């Protein structure tokens, strides 16, 4: 006897809006046979959303509508019944409208818009609102509709000028049609309510209407008639702007037109006398002209009188620079321009015609330099040599053609910059002598012992005169080494008994110029216990008799000669040191500052060997880095003997002689200077 649902039940399809919704049925029972009637009530659930007829609604409301006006809205439909049916409406927040929800007799709901704040199209042309319909289900279902409100214009704004007074000025001879002023007004309304027409005010005089024309659409005020300054100097014109509304709005402004005088009347000038030209150095108060003038025009319309001012040579030539420094590479091409002396003269004509003259600073300037008299171009007539002269000083005189002439002197200094055009020159060992200089070193000498030193100079200056020394060839390359910057030849290892007795070293000397220039020096070194062995090895001719017979005599003679030479050397060094001290003091007192300073024809001499350096060269010696670590070697020639003319090297380590020579050399300028 169970009653079952055979298919899904839709209350809205069976009963629609009828409530309550029930289905009737009959049941037959057998044994005994009986008939029963029954009914099933279908209860509603919230299974339907409210629905608006359309997703958008559009309203047109005039801005002149008063507050409190009501505007009905389309209602939403919900097929559910009871509490699940449509219950209320909601409106999105806004400043002008509120929502009033009403109930019909049958219980359905509808909504009306109520205007709470008046609309202003000039402030906001349209509004967008959202109306929401809600049913009473849990949770409630809803529907939305977009409400677009167009605010219709009303002629509630009068035209407004952007300024109340306009000012303009025109010349009295201005042709007809010339623009005088452009007035402008605006109206916040739309359509005909915002269209503006410009016109003369009703009280504008007829004379003004004859002289000026106004464009009703653009507001351009133009000249129409012939203006005359002598008749009227100022016109005050009143204008108005109206819109095209049913009840038009009106705005007013005025235009002040000033008539500018032109020189249209001939002046009557009476000139008694004119003094022209007037010298530029004429005293203040000098009478130029006597005249009287009458003119109907105003301001500055007086006949012009031209008074010429004659030039006086009262300005000396002026150079753009008081002095010039010119740098020229040595070995230049003769005849090249090296400088253009520029000068100006504010005078006129002959007084401003300039000529350039070279004032000889010394006798060599006139032979080496020349200047163009017309344009001031300085030419170099011959090739310069930095090693001959480093700088030249001269004066260029710039003179005008006035009477008397005025002149200005300009200082010009020419500095000769160095090129690497001199190879190193070997001073020791002497490269151009037939005599052979042999240095002696004893067997067993330890490594690092200085045997001798190559002395060289470079006539160039600065970086071009820096000399480096390299061992190019050697009898035994492992035995000796040479200082890169000092030229000192030292033992690279300890001398052994089986080392060769004679060694020949070829030293390569290179400067640091571009391109690099070089020279070479040959040094002979003997390995021997005593001077006797060296002399025996170096003897070219052997005596016929027994040499032992004369050995003692020659040894005694050699000792005497060496002692005498040593004494003379010490005395000479002392005298020379005193002489150099006085000379260096005078040199520093008389030295002058210059942009290019060179110490003389010789720049890099590493050491001086006693007896081998001429006196005139001695004071230009430079000592290189670490040269004070080496012992001083003094060479003295032996006297003639049957053994032949030879020279030997004797080590002299007396501190007195060593410090005297180093002290003398340290007073000289360094290579960097």
TrEMBL record:
Membrane-crossing residue ranges in chain numbering: 553-576
Asked if the keyword Transmembrane helix belongs to this entry, the reply reads yes
An example GO biological process term is: homophilic cell adhesion via plasma membrane adhesion molecules
Keywords annotated in UniProt: Calcium, Cell adhesion, Cell membrane, Glycoprotein, Membrane, Repeat, Signal, Transmembrane, Transmembrane helix
Instruction: Give residue ranges for domain Cadherin.
Output: 53-161, 162-269, 320-426, 433-545
Cell location: Cell membrane
What is the protein's membrane topology class? Answer: Single-pass type I membrane protein
Respond yes or no to whether keyword Transmembrane is given for this record.
Answer: yes
Q: Which GO terms describe its cellular component?
A: plasma membrane
| Pfam families in UniProt | Cadherin, Cadherin_2, Cadherin_C_2
GO MF terms, alphabetically ordered: calcium ion binding
Q: What is this protein called?
A: PCDGK protein
Identify the taxonomic lineage of the organism of origin.
Answer: Eukaryota, Metazoa, Chordata, Craniata, Vertebrata
């Amino acid at each position: 006897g169970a009653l079952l649902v055979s298919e899904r039940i839709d209350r809205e399809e069976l009963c629609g809006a009828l409530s309550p919704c029930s289905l009737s049925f009959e049941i037959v029972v057998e044994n005994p046979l009986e008939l029963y009637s029954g009914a099933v009530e279908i209860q509603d659930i919230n299974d339907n959303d409210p629905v608006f007829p359309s997703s958008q609604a559009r309203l047109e409301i005039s801005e002149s509508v008063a507050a409190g006006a009501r505007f009905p809205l389309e209602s939403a439909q919900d097929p559910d019944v009871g509490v699940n049916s449509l219950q209320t409406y909601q409106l999105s927040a806004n400043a002008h409208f509120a929502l009033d929800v009403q109930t019909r007799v049958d219980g359905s709901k509808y909504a009306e818009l109520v205007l709470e704040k008046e609309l202003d199209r000039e402030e906001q042309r349209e509004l967008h609102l959202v109306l929401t319909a809600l049913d009473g289900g849990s949770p409630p279902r809803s529907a939305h509709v977009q409400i677009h409100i167009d605010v219709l214009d009303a002629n509630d704004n009068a035209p407004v000028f952007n300024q109340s007074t306009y000012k303009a000025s025109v010349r009295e001879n201005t042709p007809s049609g010339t623009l005088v002023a452009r007035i402008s007004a605006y109206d916040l309304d739309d359509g005909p309510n915002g269209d503006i027409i410009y016109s003369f005010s009703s009280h504008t005089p007829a004379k003004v209407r004859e002289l000026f024309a106004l464009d009703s659409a653009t507001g351009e005020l133009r000249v129409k008639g012939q203006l005359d300054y002598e008749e009227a100097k100022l016109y005050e014109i009143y204008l108005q702007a109206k819109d095209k509304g049913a009840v038009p709005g009106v705005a007013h402004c005025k235009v002040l037109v000033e008539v500018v005088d032109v020189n249209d009347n001939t002046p009557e000038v009476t000139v008694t006398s004119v003094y022209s030209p007037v010298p530029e150095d004429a005293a203040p108060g000098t009478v130029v002209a006597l005249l009287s003038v009458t003119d109907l025009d105003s301001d500055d319309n007086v006949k012009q009188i031209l008074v010429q001012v004659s030039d006086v040579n009262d300005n000396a030539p002026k150079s753009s620079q008081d002095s010039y420094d010119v740098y020229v590479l040595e070995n230049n091409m003769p005849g090249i321009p090296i400088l253009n002396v520029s000068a100006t003269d504010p005078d006129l004509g002959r007084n401003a015609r300039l000529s350039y003259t070279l004032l000889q600073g010394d006798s060599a300037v006139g032979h080496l330099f020349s200047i163009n008299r017309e344009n001031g171009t300085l030419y170099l007539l011959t090739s310069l040599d930095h090693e001959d002269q480093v700088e030249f000083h001269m004066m260029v005189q710039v003179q005008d053609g006035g009477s008397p002439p005025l002149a200005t002197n300009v200082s010009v200094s020419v500095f000769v910059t160095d090129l690497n055009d001199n190879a190193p020159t070997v001073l020791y060992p002497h490269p151009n002598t037939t005599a052979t200089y042999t240095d002696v070193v004893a067997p067993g000498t330890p490594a690092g012992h200085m045997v001798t030193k190559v002395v060289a100079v470079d006539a160039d200056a600065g970086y071009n005169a820096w000399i480096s020394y390299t061992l190019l060839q050697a009898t035994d390359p492992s035995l000796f080494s040479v200082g890169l910057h000092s030229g000192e030849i030292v033992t690279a290892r300890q001398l052994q008994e089986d080392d060769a007795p004679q060694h020949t070293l070829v030293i390569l000397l290179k400067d640091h110029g571009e391109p690099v220039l070089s020279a070479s020096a040959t040094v002979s070194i003997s390995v021997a216990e005593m001077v006797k062995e060296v002399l025996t090895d170096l003897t070219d001719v052997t005596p016929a008799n027994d040499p032992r017979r004369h050995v003692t005599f020659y040894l005694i003679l050699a000792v005497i000669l060496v002692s005498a030479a040593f004494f003379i050397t010490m005395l000479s060094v002392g005298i020379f040191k005193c002489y150099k001290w006085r000379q260096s003091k005078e040199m520093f007192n008389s030295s002058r500052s210059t942009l290019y300073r060179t110490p003389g024809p010789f720049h890099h001499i590493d050491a001086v060997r006693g007896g081998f350096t001429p006196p005139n060269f001695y004071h230009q010696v430079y000592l290189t880095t670490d040269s004070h670590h080496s012992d001083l070697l003094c060479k003295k020639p032996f006297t003639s003997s049957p053994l032949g003319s030879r020279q030997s090297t004797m080590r002299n380590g007396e501190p007195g002689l060593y410090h005297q020579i180093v002290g003398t050399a340290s007073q000289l300028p360094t290579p960097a200077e």
